[in-house]
Specification:
The chain is α/β, with parallel strands linked by helices and 168 residues long. The chain has helices at residues 13-24, 59-67, 84-97, 116-128, 133-145, 151-166, and strands spanning 3-7, 30-35, 45-51, 72-79, 103-111. The protein has a 5-stranded parallel β-sheet, with helices on both faces. The structure holds flavin mononucleotide. Residues 9-15, 51-55, 78-81, 112-115 line the site of flavin mononucleotide.
């Protein structure tokens, strides 16, 4: 079986996951690990990864999905915020973007550190609205996200990859 790992990543979190997935795939089955571009290799299974961009996958991954038909897809994503319910909601949105003739064999989400500009924005907002408890939660989340993806995220990712490969 030929397997392609295609991802979009701005600051490296999703790329780290993509490279970890590649380690779990038999070398003779691994066609390519690459950042998304116009060229889509012909594979039997696609691990497709994205960073979370305003509640969905990135625009480049949206475009890739438009071109994928009759494929098996395992989807992974990193997000600044976390929580199983949150991840499921994010996945539901992404699922809507995957043409129905593809088979989704699994999905994996974990938290990923965010650019420092986001923290600076929170700090400015807190200065203007010191009573806003939600902003404080967002700031705490920013600090928490700095540790991710961590070793536990990668361990769970490896288990997920094994499951995906066993179930096809
Ligand atoms: C413009 C922008 C929009 C983002 N939107 C969200 C979002 O809606 N939800 C979320 O949880 N994280 C959001 N994030 C955080 C990133 O998705 C997260 O840090 C991710 O791990 C980055 O992945 P990368 O290192 O592969 O680029 C956003 C980050 C940026 C820069």
């Amino acid at each position: 079986m030929k397997i392609a790992i295609i991802y979009d990543s701005i600051t490296g979190n999703t790329e780290l996951l993509a490279k970890e997935i590649a380690k779990e795939v038999k070398p003779d089955e691994l066609l390519v690990v690459k950042k998304v571009d116009e060229e889509i290799p012909e594979a039997e299974l696609y691990f497709i990864g994205s960073w979370t961009d305003r509640g969905s996958c990135s625009d480049k991954i949206k475009k890739l999905f438009e071109k994928l038909h009759h494929k098996r897809i395992a989807y992974f994503e990193t997000a600044g915020f976390k929580g199983e319910d949150y991840f499921e909601r994010l996945f539901m949105r992404v699922k809507e973007l995957i043409p129905n003739d593809n088979k989704i064999i699994g999905h994996y989400f974990c938290q990923g550190k965010m650019p420092v500009a986001i923290k600076e924005r929170y700090l400015k907002m807190i200065k203007a609205n010191p009573e806003d408890a939600k902003l404080k939660v967002s700031l705490d989340n920013f600090e928490e996200a700095l540790n991710h993806p961590d070793e536990d995220d990668l361990k769970k990712l490896r288990e997920w990859v094994k499951n995906c490969l066993n179930n096809i």
